[in-house]
Amino acid sequence: MRIGIAGWFGSDNLGDELLLHSLMTNVRAADPAASFVVLCPVPERVAELHGVDAIHMPTLRAAGSAGRNVAVQRALRDCDLLLLGPGTVFQERSPNLPWPGTLPMFARIVAMARTAGTPVAITGAGVREGATPAGRAVLRGIGAACRAVGVRDQRSADHFGKSARAIGDMAYALPLPTVPAPDKNRLAVSMRPLAPEMEAAVLAALTETVRRFTADGWTGAFLPMAYGRDTQGEDDATIYDAAFRDELDLVANPLAAPFSEDNRFGVVLDEWMTRLAGHRLVIGARLHAVLLAVTLGVPTVAIAYERKVLDAFTDLGLAEFVLLPDADADTLHRAALRAAASPEEFRAAAGRVAAQGGIARDFVASVVKGLA
Questions:
Q1: Is it true that the peptide bond before 41 is cis, omega within 30 degrees of 0?
Q2: Quick one: 137 and 281 in the same domain?
Q3: 80-93: per-residue pLDDT in tens?
Q4: What is the DSSP string of 261-273?
Q5: Of 64 and 188, the one with more pLDDT
Q6: Is the per-residue pLDDT at 202 higher than 70?
Q7: Which of 53, 60, 167, 370 counts the most CB atoms within 10 A of its CB?
């Protein structure tokens, strides 16, 4: 079976790449003979990381757009199924995208798939908040054209109509490595660049909290999740250089590794998750840093820089451990101490993640096997 996947992959964002890896892993579990072609912004990087075919998404204005559109149409004719997502692929506007964002492009991809006779399903995708009435109409049209709609959260599901299901984040369906016992005095921090006013407030609270933990004898690491390849304002190393260089070690993420036929992304990801699990506490303003930490049972405090972070922690029963970006250092420090002292709550949350991952896996299997 030939599977197309369309999403925001190849820009050196660890969250996006682990979602693609999880989706392909679960498709292969349903059909071991499955092959893939990924529609994405940086296809050469996706091919290097994951060892699969990849092509540019169809565009209207970029150089070579006519050739790209022809290549996509040809690829879709060869596919038995097209999956949209996972990740926050439906964005009407964002810090890096002017209106109308990605919605016309994904509507065009769906139309091209229908012309090619290829069924489409949404799998673990999310909708960024702030959709306009026009944007909501486009999303309803995309949903109506899909064979199945399984999205990340109920808020996203509400945009696609009654047939849409909330299946959870595809990160929950990742196969997990065997993890070590945590270091009792090890802290990990992850933070992304934010809008200037929000970034200043978050950094003020976070740097003071880190200072208090290190004064109490903790050691720490900074976990960059994105390196900003072909994407402005996405390089987490800028945050480390500006605020944490003197306090925390910098731990490279799997995207910094050299890749080969025998050392693909999934191998290095397992090694990185094993290191992450060795921390006693994680504080993060990156969605997939905090979700992976919870998945591994690590006590975690999340800073809700976007609604999706608040939704995820609330759904996992961890509402007291997610804070708004204007939380001060005292509030953040108290929440971090509570989390570190409550490992049993996070073991229970890891169990809820595992159950939700089963729902996501079953959804992928039902879509793939439904074509057999």
A1: no
A2: no
A3: 999 999 999 999 87
A4: TTB-HHHHHHHHH
A5: 188
A6: yes
A7: 167
Query: Which domain, by its residues, includes 252?
Result: 186-354
Residue 179 is assigned to a structural domain of this protein:
no
CA dist 30 → 38, 125, 332, 362 (Å) = 18, 20, 43, 9
Burial pattern 121-157, b for ≥16 Cβ within 10 A else e, equals: bbbbbbbbeebeeebbebbeebbeebebbbbbbeebb
Give how many domains the chain has, as a whole number: 2
Position 61 scores a pLDDT of: 63
Backbone angles phi, psi at 307, to 5 degrees: -60, -35
Q: Read off the pLDDT of residues 235-258 as tens digits, 9 standing for 90 and up.
A: 999 999 999 999 999 998 999 888
Its sign, for the CA torsion 188, 95, 24, 56, is negative
Is 251 found in the same domain as 110? Answer: no
Instruction: Compute the radius of gyration of the chain from its Cα atoms.
Output: 20
Q: Do residues 157 and 258 both lie within one domain?
A: no
pTM: 0.94
Contacts of 312 (CB under 8 A, 6+ apart): 153, 169, 287, 290, 291, 302
Q: What is the mean pLDDT of residues 33-41?
A: 97
